[in-house]
Amino acid sequence: MYDVIVESKGYALTDPFFWSDLKVTILKPKTFQPEDVEIAITHCGVCGSDIHTLTQGWGESNLPLVVGHEIVGKVTRVGDKVTEFKPGDRVGVGAQVGSCLQCKRCKSDYENYCPDSISTYNSEYPDRVITHGGYSTAIRAHERFVFPIPDGIESRHAASMLCAGLTVYSPLRTYGAGPGKKIGVVGIGGLGHYAILWAKAMGAEVYAFTHDKSKMEDIKKMGADHIVNTEEKDYHI
Questions:
Q1: CA-CA distance, 48 to 86, in Å (whole number)?
Q2: 108 and 187: one domain?
Q3: What is the pLDDT of residue 49?
Q4: Is residue 66 part of a domain?
Q5: The whole model's pTM is what?
Q6: pLDDT of 2 above 70
Q7: Are residues 133 and 189 in the same domain?
Q8: 196: burial class by Cβ within 10 Å (0-12, 13-18, 19+)?
Q9: Which residue of 42, 135, 142, 179 has the fewest CB atoms within a 10 Å radius of its CB?
Q10: Which of 196, 168, 171 minimizes the C-alpha distance to 184?
Q11: Is there a contact between 88 and 75 (Cβ–Cβ < 8 Å)?
Q12: Structural domain ending residue among the three candidates 162, 180, 213
């Protein structure tokens, strides 16, 4: 039996001048809709976007504000029209929790380009409630933006796939990475390492470009076929 969540708590930004001093804050959830999935959050990754938002690098934020959009948790409640999930399911939520679902972009599976896209945090639901992210105890999202987490992936590993992983998976999938294709990954960091893993899993030949010798062994373990050290004079492939 799962309790209905009537409020949640989160680590919120309350003063932009002290962006790293987050305060535990009571949060009001959006009005629960028939298509909504309510989730008790267990894990959330850290994204560079979180820092940019907290420091006001992308403009003034709605305060108080809870960031975090690499979310994993357990379903506690589903709306009457939800067909893909049930209470107890382990699921994830990325950088978006809603869109109009009616425009050309939405109907072409490009909801992230919808003019009425609703970001997971620092955005606004139709009922005027401000969206809050994953550094909190719970979240509600339209089922279209909720994803099942396979049993074989631990929650702590799955979380960062919902933004960092998806950011590189999407173009690889869109442009047909696979057998017979060569993929170059420039910069092997938070996104780059996922690009290597995905591209290899898709069957492509992978070239990794890095200026950091300390990453060479890890890059090999990730499966890159070729490593190019851009610090070497006159380096070439």
A1: 32
A2: no
A3: 94
A4: yes
A5: 0.90
A6: no
A7: no
A8: buried
A9: 179
A10: 196
A11: yes
A12: 162
